[in-house]
Amino acid sequence: MKSNSTISDLLQKEESNSTNIAAASASPTTIDSIAESTPDTAAGSAIGSAAGAAAQSAPAPAPKPAAGGRSRGTGTALAVAAILLTAATLRSPITGVGPLIGEIQSSTGLSHTLSGMLTTLPLLAFAVFALAAPRLAARWGSEPTLLFCMIIMTGGILLRSLPSVPALFGGTALVGSAIAVANVLIPGVIKRDFPLRIGLMTSLYTSFMNMWSAISSGVSMPLARTFLGWRGALGFWILLSAATALVWIPLVRRYAANRKSAGAGAGAGYRKSGAVWRSPVAWQVTLFMGLQSVMFYIGISWLPEILHERGMSMDQAGWMLSIMQLLSMVGSFTMPLIAARTQSQKWLAAASSALFLAGFAGVWLGPASWAMLFIMLIGLGCGTTFSLVIMFFGLRARSADQAAELSGMAQSIGYLLAAVGPTLFGFLHDQSGGWTVPLATITSLSLLTIVMGYAAGRKGHVDPA
């Protein structure tokens, strides 16, 4: 992975166009014009158009005053560092929970159903705050909102590591709320600040998110085996969120100074028409989003426990989850490059969803010696379907505002569906006394994911029914 300084060198040309970019930030039309003229990939443009609407709703930054190359380079490096560090925090505090479920249950006496809530609570927060994030940015600005998210996340991680079951759940809810808002705003910041390199920055952002997700899954059990215990392993990620908050502070100061010099003029408001809620295409994208999220969050929550009961040590099961995350990173990086060459993504979406069917059916019915293969299939399915649904936010929308509506709808309803998954999976285990019924259920849902992926991947746009 390139260092932040090397990455910033690749992005220096952004700063040489600072006046144009600042003007673009003040006008949604100009943003779209610049994005259309960029030589970036079609996939990056699709992602950018969906993400950009959140940034358009935020107050426009003032045009940057002329500065030397060193100042511009420092600003670019700082922005890149903040984006990538934030990406590292968006999954690592959650994916590290799955390998620790057994330890948490032994220590607290929680049932499988309640243990599943530790993963469900962040998803409920995603559902609640996905629609609110653009409005928060419009009121306070993206940088201050993101700094506040990191502060809330730091407090939540600290709270959930305290020796109290209510604190465990309360802290988890705070972490999920912070992630939910940051998850929506960061792609918009990329669209606003790096309009000529949306594809590159989105690839780096996604790669960092998945890489740290894999690291978290792999190191959670080894950390829990040390003097830290499982509570310390959960609290370990406070170092990452606190460091990220520190990096956002100078960016917030720069934002405040620019806004003050511009007279704190208001940016373009978030315009909501409600048309997507009446669109069959929007509901197909939303259901595809929800089902692929169900697959992912059940995987990170329960696969380590399933593999452990079938003979693996918890350390080995944790590293299996890391392999799943690494394959997810590969899938999310490569699929947009493939999809950009096609007019319709229906067969790509169906084939990507079929990876879930093969993987979960294998875990259910296949030999234990093939577990790594099945986990790899699930990981590839997670990465490819996730990147496709993010693309669909832009590809199925006719405008940036419509893309924002579609993104908010899909994330809100989709994550609400996903929130049911881990808890229902644990409930089915408790009621049936084994993993056969839960695995049969998720294998059946994989078939529905194939159908929804095919429907959402067809060429077309979101239009009122």
TrEMBL record:
Indicate yes or no for the key word Protein transport: no
Q: Which residues form the Major facilitator superfamily (MFS) profile domain?
A: 278-465
Asked if the record carries the keyword Membrane, the reply is yes
Query: Keyword annotations for this protein?
Result: Membrane, Transmembrane, Transmembrane helix, Transport
Compositional bias (Low complexity) at which positions? Answer: 17-35
Q: Name one GO molecular function term.
A: transmembrane transporter activity
The superkingdom of the source organism is Bacteria
CDD domains, per this entry? MFS_NIMT_CynX_like
Q: How does it sit in the membrane?
A: Multi-pass membrane protein
Q: Where is this region: Disordered?
A: 1-48
List, alphabetically, the GO terms of the cellular component aspect: plasma membrane
* TM annotation in the entry: 74-94, 114-133, 145-162, 168-186, 198-215, 227-251, 281-300, 320-340, 347-365, 371-394, 406-429, 435-456
Its localization reads: Cell membrane
- Entry's Pfam families? MFS_1 (PF07690)
What is the protein name for this chain? MFS transporter
Q: Which organism is it from?
A: Paenibacillus faecis
